[in-house]
Q: What sequence folds into this?
């Protein structure tokens, strides 16, 4: 019906007008993974997936048994496959001239049949090799996507770091491993993987980073040579007077370098290899004035300097600083391992959690850095948005959500109701799912006069949501994403 079509177009235009092209696939943030426990043995294996990333290294896929394994990873911007069926390992790499860490979507197809292994990239680059030895069967007990979930064999296999970027349609022997990211019991477990392709993977070094919760942090590669090192950033603390970690790195023993906000003041802490602590405290109060503050930390062989705005604080070290960081350089907060180290060192803000606010203009030893160089991120946003994120485990009651009323001049309206369309907000917790139901959309039409049934209202998908996806069914193992231009009947 004409009226139904008009209603559908108006509603969907308002509902998903913020749609972006980055919605396809799922996002891995450097420490995420999908783990499927399965027992399979076959002389024929197939793997297809799409990925996009700016990272140069990361694990894409691993199928592993007690002896056999199939590993696909990104190394120095190129794909590498390693396969062992029990008679020796084969290694296959993509073409040298094909650089894949360029944030474009790339498609990989890998097949194993008896002794033959073939890999194609983007449908054109083809590589193949014969397997050594008599064994032709791949026997596995576990499958991993994006990371290894603490797998014991990961070190002996020489597996690269966790993947940071987007994966789409990971089909292993025709089973889609990325479908249905809700909570699972039994054979499939999912950690730090969210629907949609996150905008943070497209951030630049100039973009500010917003730390959105007490667990937020950005992990960069280890800080090289901090004996003569320098860290600099601009900082905008939140309006609330919260303590929080700005910077943390350690040598995994006694030594560490940290910078935190404590009681509204920036405090730098250096602990040498013998456990001797040196603290510098700025007198500048940084909370509550809604201003950006330039912060600099300089580490020299025999001294440390902290500068906040125009204020400079300096301290001499009793012994020459010998510090070789082994862990990541953490900005804005702490991961679980670093939290324990910080607590043992007496770092006051370790219990309080992450820095609340924004960082920008981040420089290490004079060089720009930021989200494009991150190894792991957690609960952060691109740009200076510091409102808290929803707890992925929380549930939201949408029955009390406010109505959004849309006035219109269309002639057909229910008596006594001057609004053609009323919407109730549908809120979905991060990492969760919620049904879009007729109660969220109230169409104020006299269907009887128009000789219409509500099921005749057809809704057309004009574009995908900024985050997540629209599905026909919300059960974990069924339902397909709604494609653009597809029409559906709500509640039918």
A:
């Amino acid at each position: 019906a004409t009226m139904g079509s008009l209603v559908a177009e108006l509603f969907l235009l308002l509902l998903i007008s913020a749609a972006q092209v980055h919605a396809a696939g799922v996002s891995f943030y450097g420490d995420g993974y999908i783990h499927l426990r399965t027992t399979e043995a076959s002389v024929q294996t197939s793997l297809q997936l799409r990925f996009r990333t700016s990272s140069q290294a990361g694990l894409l896929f691993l199928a592993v048994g007690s002896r056999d394994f199939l590993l696909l990873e990104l190394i120095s911007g190129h794909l590498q496959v390693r396969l062992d069926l029990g008679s020796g390992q084969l290694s296959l790499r993509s073409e040298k001239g094909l650089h894949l860490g360029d944030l474009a979507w790339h498609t990989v197809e890998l097949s194993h049949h008896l002794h033959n292994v073939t890999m194609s990239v983007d449908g054109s680059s083809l590589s193949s090799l014969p397997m050594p030895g008599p064994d032709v069967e791949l026997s596995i007990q576990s499958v991993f996507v994006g990371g290894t979930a603490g797998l014991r064999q990961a070190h002996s296999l020489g597996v690269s770091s966790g993947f940071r970027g987007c994966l789409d349609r990971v089909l292993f022997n025709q089973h889609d491993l990325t479908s249905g990211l809700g909570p699972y019991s039994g054979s499939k477990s999912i950690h730090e993987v969210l629907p949609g392709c996150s905008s943070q993977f497209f951030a630049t070094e100039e973009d500010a980073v917003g730390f959105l919760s007490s667990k937020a942090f950005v992990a960069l590669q280890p800080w090289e040579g901090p004996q003569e090192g320098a860290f600099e950033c601009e900082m905008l603390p939140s309006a609330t007077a919260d303590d929080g970690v700005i910077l943390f790195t350690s040598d995994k023993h006694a030594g560490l370098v940290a910078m935190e906000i404590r009681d509204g003041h920036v405090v730098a802490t250096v602990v040498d290899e013998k456990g001797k602590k040196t603290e510098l405290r700025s007198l500048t109060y940084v909370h509550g004035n809604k201003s950006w503050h330039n912060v600099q930390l300089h580490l020299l062989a025999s001294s440390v300097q902290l500068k906040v705005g125009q204020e400079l604080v300096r301290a001499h070290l009793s012994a020459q600083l010998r510090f070789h960081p082994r862990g990541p350089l953490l900005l804005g907060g702490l991961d679980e391992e670093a939290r324990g180290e910080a607590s043992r060192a007496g770092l006051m803000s370790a219990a309080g959690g992450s820095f609340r606010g924004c960082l920008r203009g981040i420089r290490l030893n004079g060089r720009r850095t930021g989200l494009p160089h991150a190894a792991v991120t957690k609960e952060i946003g691109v740009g200076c948005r510091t409102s808290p994120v929803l707890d992925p485990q929380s549930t939201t009651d949408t029955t009390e959500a406010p109505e959004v009323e849309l006035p219109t001049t269309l002639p057909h309206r229910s008596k006594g109701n001057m609004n053609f369309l009323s919407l109730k907000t549908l809120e979905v917790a991060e990492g969760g799912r919620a049904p879009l139901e007729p109660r969220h959309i109230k169409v104020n039409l006299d269907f009887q006069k128009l000789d219409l049934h509500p099921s005749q209202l057809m809704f057309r998908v004009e574009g995908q949501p900024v985050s997540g996806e629209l599905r026909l069914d919300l059960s974990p193992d069924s339902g397909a994403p709604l494609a653009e231009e597809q029409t559906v009947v709500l509640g039918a």
Observations:
- The first strand starts at residue 26 and ends at 42.
- Residues 209-382 form a domain with the Jelly Rolls fold (CATH 2.60.120.200).
- Helices lie at 2-15, 154-157, 336-344.
